Amino acid sequence: MHKLKDIIQMSEEEIIDYHDKHMINYSYGGDFFVNEFYRRQQEKSTKAIEDMTKKMLDYTKIMTVLTVVNVILVVVTMFK
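^ thats the sequence. predicted structure below, dont judge the formating
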């Protein structure tokens, strides 16, 4: 069995391979590798959602600025 720090440093492929080769006959403890794999997947998903949220915020700021510019142009055009 590996130490926790060794498992954390494994690539996802290494985790899957190790689990498939060594944990198939274990009923206890084998899901640590599966949990580590799922934790990494969740971490990737969370990062992707955070990135999309930041982009949406940037787009919202741009749309707000453009809307203000549009309102100003409409008001200026109305009073000419």
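DSSP finds three helices and no strands in the chain.
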